[in-house]
Amino acid sequence: MFLGFGLDAWITILTVFGMFTILLFTKLRSDVVFLCAVGILYVTGVLDTKEALSGISQTSVAVVGVLFVVIAGLTHTGVLQWITKHLLGTPTNYAKAVARLMLPVAALSSFLSNTTVVALFVNIVKMWSKKLGVSPSKLLIPLSYASGMGGVCTLIGTPPNLIISGLYEEKTGEAMNILATTVPGLFCLAVGVLSIIAMRRLLPDRKAPEEAFESTGDYTVEMLVPSDNPHIGMTVGELGLTTVHGGSLVELRRFDNETVMSPVPDDEPLMGGDRLVYAGQIGELLELEETHGLVNADHPVFHYNDAARGKHSLRTAYITFGSSLIGTTMGTNGFEKEHQVTLVAVSRRGSRIEESPRNVVLKAGDTLLLESLNELKTDTKHLSRDLHFFESEEIPNIGWGTLFSSLIMIAMVTLSACGVLPLLQCAILAVFAMFIFRCCTPEQAMRSVNWDILMIFAGSAVLGLAIQKTGIAERMATGILDICGSNPIVVMAAICFAGTFITEFISNTAAGAMFFPIMYDAAEKLGYEPFPFLIALMIAVSSSFATPIGSPTHMLVYGPGGYRFSDFLKIGLPMNLIILAANILIVCLVYPLTPLA
Hints:
Elements: H1 7-25, H2 30-43, H3 49-52, H4 59-76, H5 79-87, H6 94-109, H7 114-132, H8 137-151, H9 159-172, H10 182-198, E1 220-224, E2 243-244, E3 247-253, E4 260-261, E5 275-280, H11 282-285, H12 288-291, E6 295-296, E7 313-319, H13 330-333, H14 335-339, E8 342-348, E9 351-352, E10 367-372, E11 387-389, H15 400-417, H16 423-436, H17 442-448, H18 451-469, H19 472-484, H20 488-502, H21 508-526, H22 531-541, H23 552-558, H24 565-590
Antiparallel strand pairs: 1-5, 1-6, 2-3, 3-4, 3-5, 7-10, 7-11, 8-9, 8-10
């Protein structure tokens, strides 16, 4: 024994600490890190075979997997689009705009994936903000916050709710109602909306990154090859025209203006009348007139609006946190060649970087303007670890399917809430109904399942088991009681505060699994029913407002809003404390603390 912990406990502590360190400071896949952590606990004998594989067999993990398919039916029938089209309207002031935005987003997030809802609303909010004359940065953080606060209003709204309720059912044999968190969640949501309105001065007024891309004349120049140019017949590679001082070659248009190449191969010969489109610093690019005998084209043919006419594809993408592109340049990382795209411009915090785009060292949140000859064929799901594209490639058809999928979701929630069937059975029936009424195809359903999240979910449950089995949870619960005394409200608040802090840096699913045994043991040691304590924990581990890495939805709005890391701290820290206080207050009122029988 060392400091009260045995060997298995120390192996678990070091494994968990190492896992979180790797997640924070490396770009390794989260699901792989979780699975490796479980593997270490199994190989070292901390967990036996049944325990190591118990995460996969968790009912809550199965529910999450099945719900992905239900969400696919709602998405492909246009339910989200129909709701957003009819709810936002034209509010007359900022307070009304925040309420009109946050309430429907929270309602949707109570039943759907928070990430799906925010990804849909980002472009809508950007257009809506222009209509209202408000900076998108004033609305995108509230958008992300609303999705998180709405998610806690039902057990299916966010993964921590499912994993904590699943662990509770395993411990007690009693299933939580799907609406167990609804009243506390709605109260915290109302407090959150009012807090955002009251603290709106803490929200930054940033310029939207795409504004830097509204005129291609600002960052591209077209050079014409005169018919008497001495280099005609030589290749662009031989002439060194692909990457030049001050910029890079985006596109080559032949003299007939019909043949267009992008990206341009090094072995492409130069012909009289060709137009070379360069992106970068205009002044330096014009030096090509002297060095290569080119002339500045009088009538440019490369325009941003050409994309709308099908001449070429221009798409905006945002670099995600953990992207392999961070710290690299497009000139060296091989991304353009691999995906057949060309980087036209880079924007950071709403301003285009005045440097050759391919020489810019990329950072998280940077906005990239990418160009390809035809419609971009890149599988954007494959690129989701590096970039996030907001344009939807599939336009849902709003019709009878929209109504059917909505009724199926309502029936699923009602049957579960009334205790007619367990949640998993209700979800499976909902999937069958989605297929029968053709709300989505089996292929769309399988593509919608996020296996990464399922592996993280399963791994988190196993880590929670290890923390409890090795006595770590009991020791931590005892330590908290020694510090906080025997007042149950103080103990509840202390553990919730720790959960809120931890979830700013790690997945809320992992935080929920890690703190479940600690909260459960603390409640039992105090002699109280654990149920109210766990409801408070559900809300706490989903209340990550202070860092952009605290939630995937924060990362979705970080780039489009032109935010800085400190922007989240300014408003997020007060929000954390306000929601924590509201959480403890409402839980104790709705679920009075009851001594164990």
